[in-house]
Amino acid sequence: MLCVALAVATWEELAFRGYALAHWEVHPQLAILVSALGFTFLHWGFSPASLVTVFFAATAFGIVRVISGSLGWCILIHALTNFLAEGAKPPDWAVLPVAVLASAATLSVLLRHPNLRKKGSGISQSQV
Q1: Are 28 and 72 in contact (CB under 8 A)?
Q2: Which of 43, 55, 101, 128 is the most exposed place for a label (fewest CB within 10 A)?
Q3: How confident is the model over 20-65, as pLDDT tens digits?
Q4: What is the pTM of this model?
């Protein structure tokens, strides 16, 4: 199960935080938003509450990618998230407080981190 979680995380991160963010490096905030929306759309079969969580997790992965400049951290965190989510299937309503807290933390970092304000910061074609 860990291998499946890692394989899925690797593919999704290469597509959404690797390729997509590298091609929008001039506008990192917009790149993170578009990448998170695309990632959420990929998970469209989930419940509405879970989609909110997916969106904010994707936003957080995008922030990690821009700040660290590394896709490796995103893959690792994503794989762990997938692995843990398979074992714990909370009711839909239970994920809403987590999504709200994650969104507040994500937006705080997004608005304050200097790498997210400079054009061309954090990501380059060679890092994909």
Answers
A1: no
A2: 101
A3: 777 776 778 888 898 999 999 988 888 787 888 889 889 888 888 8
A4: 0.68
How far apart are alpha carbons 123 and 40 in whole angstroms? 22
Alpha carbons 82 and 102: distance in angstroms, whole number: 17
Q: What is the pLDDT of residues 63-76, one digit of tens each?
A: 888 887 888 888 88
Concatenated DSSP letters of 49-86: HHHHHHHHHHHHHHHHHHHH--HHHHHHHHHHHHHHHH
Non-local CB neighbours of 38 within 8 Å, separated by 6+ positions: 16, 20
Q: SS3 of 125, please?
A: helix
Q: Any residues with CB less than 8 A from the CB of 21 and at least 6 apart, and which?
A: 28, 31, 32, 35, 62, 65, 66, 123
